[in-house]
Each structure stands twice: as C-alpha cells, then as structure tokens.
Specification:
By secondary structure, the chain is α/β, with parallel strands linked by helices. The protein folds into two domains: 274 residues, BirA Bifunctional Protein, domain 2 (2-Layer Sandwich), CATH 3.30.930.10; 83 residues, 3-Layer(aba) Sandwich (Rossmann fold). It is 36% helix and 21% strand. The chain contains 15 helices and 19 strands. The strands form four sheets. Strands 3, 7, 8, 9, 10, 11, 12, 13 and 14 form a nine-stranded mixed beta sheet that branches. A five-stranded mixed beta sheet has the order 16-15-17-18-19, with helices on both faces. Strands 4-6-5 form a three-stranded antiparallel beta sheet. It starts with 11 loop residues before the first strand and ends with a helix. The structure holds histidyl-adenosine monophosphate.
C-alpha cells in the first residue's frame, strides 16, 4: 500500500503543478519573499523559535479554543510538549528573556509553520505558514497604527486594493466596558472570556444559540447587536483612524465591533483583515496583548505589545481568485551544450565558472544528441547557450536575437554581461 500524507497537511511541488491537490512551492516562495520585503521596509527584523515548545507555554494564556487543537505529546524524556499552534507565546518568551539587549520599541517578524488539529474546512488546514509582525514596548496608539499600516501595505504589495480587502478594527476595551457596565451574572474571568467567545462566534452561530449563551451571562442578543451597530470609535480607535488617514490609508479600515478575536491574551485594540466580498475566512488577525510578556516571564518583565498573524492559506486562495499570482516558469540563464564528448571536461569547467559568476547553468549530465540538448535548453527558457568550439573558444548564442559570438574561454562572463 502506498503511503499518503496526513489530512490537513500539504505537499509543495515546483510548477507546473502535477495535480490540483498539491500546492505550489514557487507561489509559497513568492509570498515569503514579499512578506520579508515589506516587513524590512518598516524596519522589522527577522527572528525564529523552536517548532516544539513546552505544552505549558500554550496552556497559559492562549485560551481553550487553541488548546483543544494542540498537537501535543509526552516526549522520551517525559516532558509534556506541543508543536506550536501560534508564534506569539514563543515571541513573548524570547523577548522577556533578552529584552535588555534591544532598543525599544522592538519590531520583529517571523514566518513560522504552525500546527493546529482543526476540523478541515475551506481556508483551514492542520498546518500553515504565518507571517507574524509584532511591536513590543510601546503603549501609544501610534504603534497600533504603524502595525496596521504594515498589514495594509503587505496586502497591497501583492496587488490587492481597497476593492479587494478591508481591515475590521475593534477594541476589547470597548467590549470590556460594555461587559462591566452590563448586568453580568458573574465576576469571574472565565465568564468574561465566555462572553468574548460568544461575540467572536456571533456571525457563524445560529441566533437562538447566541441568545441562549448570552442570556446565561446576563446579556441579550439585542443589546449586543445594538452596541455593534452603533460602531462608535473609542478615543484610542479614533487616534488610530486619524494616523492612518494621514498616511492615505483610512479607506482600508472600518470600525467593526463584531471583531473581538478568539485568543485569550488580547487586551485592547484588535483587528482582522478580510476579503471585501466576504468569500473567505480572515486573511489576518491581531491586536494588543499588553499582559502576555509579564505573564510568561512570571512577572519579571512587563512590556506592552501588539502584533498580527497573516496565514498563507487564505492569502493564496485570494490571490489565485483575483489572478494576482505571477507565472512561475522554469528558467535557467545558460545551457552549456556538450556535442563533442572530448570537450566534456572543459565544458564542466565552463559550467562551474559560470555558476561561480552567479548564473543559473544547466547541461546534460550524460551524452545526448545535440537536438535533444537544444530542446532542453528551449524548455528551460534559457537566455543563452554556450558551446565549446575547442578547449579555448566558446560559441555563445543569444536565444532571443539568435546572434552568435565566439569568445575566448576566460572571456565568456564578460560577453554574457
Ligand atoms: P489567528 O487569528 O489565530 O492569530 O491566526 C492568524 C491568521 O492565521 C488567520 O487569520 C488565518 O489567516 C491564519 N490561520 C490560522 N489558523 C489557520 C489554519 N488552521 N489554517 C490556515 N490558516 C490559518 C494568531 O495566531 C495570533 N498569534 C496572531 C498574532 C500575532 N497576534 C499578535 N501577534
């Protein structure tokens, strides 16, 4: 029996893709490169952490939803461990350990592969890559605006426009005030988290079910909906909107109190990026988590923080549907033709010289008919073929113009330039 991959995991193949059921390694590389470019433009530096962490790191403050999805096990040293379902706790741990070595605010990004044992559905797999950008050590809403601007520019860098996506901006502070001022039935943190969870699931849950959940906590669906519809920005949100307006980015953002975020550690401003037509799940999500560093460092380090995560799955689906993925053709710069096997040794020397000069070079590993070699060169869309005429002269052919020149062996690189 042939072995197959696990459900919810992906194989990434070079293009052209052999099957509709596999993913493009080229598209993935393209997305990563774009993420890195824009993050660096905003002055973010790259970090990474281990894919396997102590289980406790995630049970501390990520919330029940994500804990229920952990890929966790006991290792051979009897340690309780888990594959990382998200990057934020790792980042909080890393920052707390060495924050003194870095000027504030700390602006870092990473592209981790994350693992969640989710029910498979459109846009949700059991493994995904997530662009994480976080800013640590600044409480001013200017930091929130800077991060949202990075989120917008990242999406714009793929060719997506105001017509394609929207950032829904909200605040847990606003919801906390609503909750504290309401007729809540319990003072416990669990009840508050349950309330937040009910809000988070509102759009995807049948009305009666939400009504039941909310009334158990002391609230009615009507008053919750009324609060959402009022959509009045808090002072903090107003300041972010103004900051974004100054950058010409105001139209990308909408106040939307439906957004409250599922993860337990968020403390203030929260936001999510969605495609404008509402066809897909969230492209990205994030917010403030001003207490997480303190919690994870056992109270030793106290730093405000905020950030977002953008997954590759929904982003790829969206780019594909809008025709915004480039074509990924195979390509080599030069094909070295070896028609006279007596010149193979010298040809290999030429191949190495050209590669050392930075060119992508292909050639036939074993003796082959010259028309077969030429056909392969064409398939690879090469710019040039190079063929030794003797051990001292090389015939270079420009595949576009078909012009041919003969150059001295050591002069080939100059001619290619
Ligand atoms: P999150 O909302 O859980 O946030 O995930 C962020 C994004 O990752 C989602 O909007 C989605 O695009 C993608 N994503 C999440 N789960 C899956 C999945 N199973 N399959 C495919 N894509 C998925 C966080 O993880 C926070 N730690 C983000 C953050 C960083 N907050 C502050 N800093």
């Amino acid at each position: 029996m042939a072995l197959e991959r696990l459900p919810g995991f992906r194989d990434f193949y070079p293009e052209p893709l052999p099957h509709t059921d596999v993913w493009s390694a080229d598209a993935r590389q393209f997305i990563f490169a774009q993420w890195r470019t824009v993050a660096r433009r905003y002055g973010f530096r790259e970090y990474d952490g281990p894919p396997l962490e102590p289980l406790e790191l995630f049970t501390t403050k990520s919330g029940d939803e994500i804990v229920g999805q952990l890929y966790n096990f006991t290792d051979k040293g009897e340690r309780k461990v888990s594959l990382r379902p998200e990057m934020t706790p790792t980042l909080a741990r890393m920052v707390a350990a060495h924050e003194r070595n870095y000027k504030k605010p700390i602006k870092w990004f990473a592209i981790p592969q994350l693992f969640r044992y989710e029910r498979q559905q459109k846009g949700r797999l059991r493994e995904h890559f997530q662009f994480n950008a976080d800013l640590i050590g600044e409480t001013d809403p200017a930091a929130d605006a800077e991060l949202i601007a990075l989120l917008i520019d990242t999406l714009r860098s793929f060719g997506l426009t105001e017509q394609d996506f929207v950032i829904r901006l909200s605040s847990r502070n606003a919801w906390q005030d609503f909750y504290k001022n309401g007729k809540r039935k319990s003072e416990s943190e669990t009840a508050e988290y349950e309330f937040f969870q009910a809000i988070d699931k509102l759009v995807r849950t049948p009305k009666e079910e939400s009504e039941k959940k909310l009334s158990a906590l002391g609230f009615s669906l009507a008053e919750v909906n009324q609060f959402i519809e009022s959509g009045k920005p808090t002072a903090e949100l107003e300041s972010i909107l103004q900051n974004l307006a100054a950058r010409g980015l105001r139209n990308f953002v909408k106040i939307d109190y439906h957004v409250i975020r599922g993860l337990a550690y968020y403390t203030g401003v929260v936001f999510e990026a969605f495609d404008a037509k509402g066809e897909f799940r969230a492209i990205a999500g994030g917010g403030r988590y001003d207490n997480l560093v303190k919690l994870i460092s056992g109270g030793k380090v106290n730093l405000p923080a905020l950030g977002f995560g953008m997954g590759d799955v929904v982003l790829l689906e969206l780019l594909k549907s809008r025709g915004l993925l480039p074509k990924f053709d195979v390509h080599a710069d030069v094909f070295v033709l070896i028609e006279d096997e007596n010149l193979r040794a010298d040809s290999l020397k030429l191949v190495q010289d050209l590669r050392a000069a930075g060119y992508t070079v292909e050639y036939s590993l074993t003796p082959a008919k010259s028309d077969k070699q030429f056909k392969r060169a064409q398939e690879l869309n090469v710019g040039f073929t190079a063929k030794l005429d003797s051990d001292a002269y090389v015939r270079i052919r420009n595949m576009k113009t078909r012009a041919e020149v003969v150059a001295g062996f050591s002069d080939v690189v100059n001619h290619l330039k």
